[in-house]
Design a protein that fits this description.
314 residues, 3-stranded antiparallel β-sheet, 3 strands, 3% strand
Length: 314
């Protein structure tokens, strides 16, 4: 809903700027001009297609309630994308994730940022699944986390009951969660339903916006080393929690998930096992992650063996 609201808000603002006050005024030329306007904002093909597809869906709705003429939606033609374009290469790379984890394990062990990075990276879970975890979902003895669909008390899984699963944890991740639960700076809170969240805020459970903000903040590359963009971290606006998303190298929860899945496949886990851990179908893994994993394996082979494949004329 947030995504749809944002996309349609952009269209409404454009209409206002163009003096279009009624949906009944819209015609095919307006849709063409709007697509050209958005294309000029250097959007990726997938983002542009998503925006135009949302607009198409909205106009189809207006047709159903007879707010616009029948056939108006036929005048919107979302641009086609290739499979390669739909499979984004932007992710938290494994080497970056490992440097971040090394830093947090040594310098911020058991903090909220640390435990969130461990959970996102090692489970490959979606943001909603992580923020919906309760303390009772963590089993330190058998070392697993349980993702449970609880729509009646405010937290859901994308695939509902079919998304429920147990995900095993390593010793390191288990110890990190235990350290966080012992951390005196952790807020021992319940949410509005009386549930005890695993990861908390002063108010109770993490909100979607707070979770996303923390992910951008905790993946800033200047956390563990020099800024790759030539900025002084002490003077950089991107180190402000509310500005961290503007750093080209910070990553959203989805991009951490993308990197995690690619990493798990690169580690040799069978796609069927990764599919169960991250709650994504084998077809999705094949279309969106196998290609990235294969490419990274090729780069590793290139580094290891290319010098052996050269020859000299002398």
């Amino acid at each position: 809903m947030e995504t749809y609201h944002y996309r349609l808000k952009l269209f409404v603002e454009w209409c206002e700027a163009e003096g279009i006050d009624e949906v009944s005024e819209l015609d095919g030329w307006d849709f063409e001009r709007y697509e050209t306007y958005r294309r000029g904002h250097d959007l990726s093909p997938v983002t542009l297609r998503g925006e135009m597809q949302t607009l198409l869906n909205f106009i189809e709705y207006l047709e159903r309630i007879e707010a616009v003429d029948e056939g108006t939606s036929d005048k919107i033609d979302p641009p086609a994308t290739t499979r390669e374009q739909e499979s984004s290469d932007e992710k938290l790379a494994a080497d970056e994730a490992h440097r971040l984890l090394d830093y947090y394990r040594e310098h911020q062990h058991g903090t909220r940022r640390h435990v969130l990075l461990e959970l996102f990276w090692h489970t490959g879970a979606r943001m909603g699944a992580v923020r919906g975890l309760d303390r009772r979902d963590f089993d330190p003895e058998d070392q697993f986390i349980a993702f449970v669909h609880r729509p009646e008390t405010g937290t859901t899984l994308k695939n509902k009951a079919r998304g429920e699963r147990l995900v095993s944890l390593s010793d390191t991740v288990t110890e990190a969660i235990q350290a966080y639960l012992r951390n005196p700076n952790r807020w021992d809170k319940h949410d509005e339903y009386g549930r005890e969240p695993l990861v908390t805020t002063r108010q109770g459970r993490l909100s979607t916006n707070t979770t996303r903000r923390i992910c951008y903040e905790m993946t800033l590359p200047c956390t563990y080393g020099d800024c790759p963009h030539g900025k002084d971290p002490m003077a950089c606006d991107w180190t402000n929690p509310n500005e961290a998303s503007k750093c080209p190298s910070s990553r959203s929860p989805h991009r951490i998930r993308t990197g995690s899945i690619t990493w798990q496949l690169n580690c040799g886990l069978p796609p069927s096992v990764v599919s169960e851990r991250v709650n994504a179908s084998p077809e999705v893994l094949r279309d969106h992650y196998d290609k990235a994993a294969e490419r990274e394996e090729m780069e590793e082979r290139r580094r290891s063996f290319n010098n052996r494949l050269t020859f000299s004329n002398s």
